[in-house]
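Run log, item B.
One chain of 109 residues. Sequence copied directly from the ordering sheet:
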Amino acid sequence: MQTLYDSDTFVVVHILAHADAVRPQVLAPADPDGQTAGAVHAPTAHQMPRHGFEIVDKRSGKEVYLDGSWAELFQQQIHTWQRDAPTQEEVEDTLEGYATLAQTPVAVH
């Protein structure tokens, strides 16, 4: 399990089924000057192992777990963010769209 993003509004966690198949990835939105705030790592394997993403909306206290084709779509979004170095606002806007799917109250694991 790897925390990819943590803000006042959202937390995104990448849950790997085969942790040795890929290196952890870190989302790093650009600061207001357009500079990337942290390192971003790409997967070492070309094939995506079965995994998922947990997106927590801190405002509502609800979460959504993306796996299967939803995880693949979100993985593509992460690759786009890695390539384009988005602002925090752009990342938050995208996560807001996924947060509309959140129905499960957050549970401490």
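Observations after the first pass:
- The chain has one domain: 2-105.
- The radius of gyration is 13 Å.
Flagged for discussion on Thursday.
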